[in-house]
């Protein structure tokens, strides 16, 4: 039986984040989600916060700590896309994606690390993407932000590894979400041709991997990149 932990999932109001929060709840943990709008799954504590605003992150953590106790498992999932070809991509479109996906992860990890260091226990899971290491046309900003999370996790591991804190990266491939459902049929078929598994993943398949990496059982795994992509990236 795993010890019930206080878990925070950023961007837990939809898609993969919502499924991750559901999975931790199903395993008996105390779960909080941050969202700019909307709600996390039933049974979770939803706190409004924006990962681009350090003050709102601090306030969210303070509220979660008061209600559920210090955050022991952090899943940095909040992310945005602003796709466009390099030649047409504005600096704002580049900077906004970096600020949310990368600096946003830094903000929440920094705030969570205080309690983790005190407890000498912590699980940090950064949600990257197959695109982070495999690349994707029209996604210079997104790919850069997601690749950078690998360096972040590995540096955190070297800094905090001796304190019972792990930092890992989960890199999902194509997942059945509103985002992929909106793609034209022909494009979906083309993507599936390149995936050895021949299909997209369900959000639950990603959530179960995240929950395991965030568990007591994964104490000796840190600085790892775990792909959940049906073989698309092949470790790239």
Automatic annotation (TrEMBL):
<feature type="domain" description="Ketoreductase">
    <location>
        <begin position="5"/>
        <end position="178"/>
    </location>
</feature>
<dbReference type="InterPro" id="IPR057326">
    <property type="entry name" value="KR_dom"/>
</dbReference>
<keyword id="KW-0560">Oxidoreductase</keyword>
<dbReference type="InterPro" id="IPR050259">
    <property type="entry name" value="SDR"/>
</dbReference>
<protein>
    <submittedName>
        <fullName>3-oxoacyl-[acyl-carrier-protein] reductase</fullName>
    </submittedName>
</protein>
<comment type="similarity">
    <text>Belongs to the short-chain dehydrogenases/reductases (SDR) family.</text>
</comment>
<dbReference type="Pfam" id="PF13561">
    <property type="entry name" value="adh_short_C2"/>
</dbReference>
<dbReference type="InterPro" id="IPR002347">
    <property type="entry name" value="SDR_fam"/>
</dbReference>
<dbReference type="InterPro" id="IPR036291">
    <property type="entry name" value="NAD(P)-bd_dom_sf"/>
</dbReference>
<dbReference type="GO" id="GO:0016491">
    <property type="term" value="F:oxidoreductase activity"/>
</dbReference>
């Amino acid at each position: 039986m795993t010890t019930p932990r206080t878990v925070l999932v950023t961007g837990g109001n939809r898609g993969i984040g919502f499924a991750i929060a559901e999975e931790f709840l199903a395993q008996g943990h105390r779960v909080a989600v941050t969202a700019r709008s909307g709600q996390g799954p039933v049974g979770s504590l939803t706190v409004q916060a924006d990962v681009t605003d350090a003050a709102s992150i601090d306030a969210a953590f303070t509220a979660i700590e008061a209600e559920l106790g210090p955050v022991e498992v952090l899943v940095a999932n909040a992310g945005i896309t602003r796709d466009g070809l390099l030649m047409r991509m504005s600096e704002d479109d580049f900077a906004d994606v970096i600020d949310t996906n990368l600096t946003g992860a830094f903000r929440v990890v920094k705030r969570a690390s205080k309690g983790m260091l005190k407890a000498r226990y912590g699980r940090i899971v950064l949600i990257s993407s197959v695109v982070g290491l495999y690349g994707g046309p029209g996604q210079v900003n997104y790919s850069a932000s997601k690749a950078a999370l690998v360096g972040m996790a590995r540096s955190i591991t070297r800094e905090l590894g001796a304190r019972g804190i792990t930092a890992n990266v989960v890199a999902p491939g194509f997942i059945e979400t509103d985002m992929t459902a909106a793609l034209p049929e022909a494009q979906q078929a083309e993507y599936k041709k390149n995936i050895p598994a021949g299909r997209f993943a369900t959000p639950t398949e990603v959530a179960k991997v995240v929950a395991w990496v965030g568990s007591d059982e994964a104490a000796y795994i840190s600085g790892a990149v775990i792909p959940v992509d049906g073989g698309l990236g092949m470790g790239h």
